[in-house]
Amino acid sequence: MRYELLIGLRYTRAKRRNHFISFISMISMCGIALGVAALIVVLSVMNGFQKELRTRILGVASHIQIQGTDGDLPGWRTVEQQAVQHPQVMAAAPYVQAQGLLSYDQTVRGTVVRGILPVEEEKVADFAQHMKMGALEKLAPGEFGIVLGADLARALRAFEGDKVTLIAPQGTNTPVGLAPRLKQFTVVGVFEVGMFEYDNGLALIHMQDAQRLYQMGDSVSGVRLKLKDLFAAPQVARELYQYVTAETYASDWTRSHANFFRAVQIEKNMMFLILLLIVAVAAFNIVSTLVMAVTDKQADIAILRTLGAEPKSIMQIFIVQGALIGTIGLALGVIGGVALALNIDVVVPFLERMLGFQFLAKDVYYITDLPSELQWDDVAIITAVSFVLTLVATLYPSWRASRTNPAEALRYE
Questions:
Q1: Domain layout of the chain by residue ranges
Q2: Using an 8 Å Cβ cutoff, are 292 and 17 in contact?
Q3: What is the end-to-end Cα distance of the chain in Å, rounded?
């Protein structure tokens, strides 16, 4: 073992005459550990939030939507057949989407009405696994059944079997003037995807019933596509123009919900920078630790210099000491951060029960549970950046130690 490394390790674990230096060293280790652990946990939560948001949105929305340029898509069967020819497209389903008012027991709520074909819809969405009451298959043409979001059903106080009135915004001309177009629907199911936007503002009916209510004939609003790789959606949306001959417009999920994911990504980047500053502050506590250690070891440094140690060797001794302090703190932070990130689903409910309130209110946030997805790439980046910061923090005190004059240091010994 090189003597610089041996002495550096000895200085780190040796009992010092000045206990304040040991205290500052411990504070530096703890600061680095807390900063690194916080950084790993926060980035894991942001990754989990992004994944959960994407999963829930795409469980109700679609990877790609093909719509007509004027809002209607008359030849949708041909468009559907042409779209599925793309190698990335797994399934396709037509839909009708419009606005409406739901009324029940003197309560009125606005909603988005989506007309679907239940069998086809199951291929592009995940409504079946989110059904809390009834079934999507109960939507049959001509029977005017309706499936409501859970919060919408609670707001209307409507349950399975109740009859609600759906009012379309388009009116009907009558001899006495314009009359609202309305139809009574029977609630055949309730779904809950865990996103307030959909649970509170989406109602599903059969596509033929929607075409009849909104007087669309055989036209639909568009065709929804599910892809093998959802991250290939932007490229597939551009390539679909080579497959679909009709005048259409293709919109992928990265554009229709861009604000959600862009906001999450920006927030993740900013949290990384902010928490990295905490790690930097803790790492630069090593500077004060080593400065005091250098002052305390002036005589030792002078003796080493008189024995022939070069300035770079003295510098390496204190770099080893500072790097070891940082590495121990970094290791503790990585272990603690990874353990907490992997068990966030246990820790957060415990804290909520102990403190008596919910961190994520359903009417404010898109999800109600704090998710976590540990990505080892993030852990590697955090570890590398933190280790570099600790090394940088050792440079000045080590350089100062290497500049020690042996004669001056030993004058009063």
A1: 3-56+260-410, 62-255
A2: no
A3: 30
Q: Of 283, 230, 194, give the one whose Cα is nearest residue 64.
A: 230
Residue 179: φ, ψ to 5°: -110, 145
Contact in structure between 63 and 278 (CB atoms under 8 Å): no
Q: What's the pLDDT tens digit per position in 59-104?
A: 777 888 998 877 788 888 898 999 999 999 999 999 999 999 999 9
d(CA 403, CA 405): 6
DSSP bridge pairs for 116: 95, 206
Q: Please list the alpha-helical segments (H only) found in 67-157.
A: 76-83, 118-124, 150-156
pTM greater than 0.85: no
Half-sphere exposure of 403 (CA within 13 A, CB side): 7
Question: CA 236 to CA 286: how far, in whole Å?
Answer: 52
| Residue where the block lists tokens 């999920």 | 253
- In the numeric block, the tokens 């930097």 are attached to 280
Residue type, 373: E
Strands (E), 21-162: 64-68, 89-104, 107-116, 131-134, 145-149
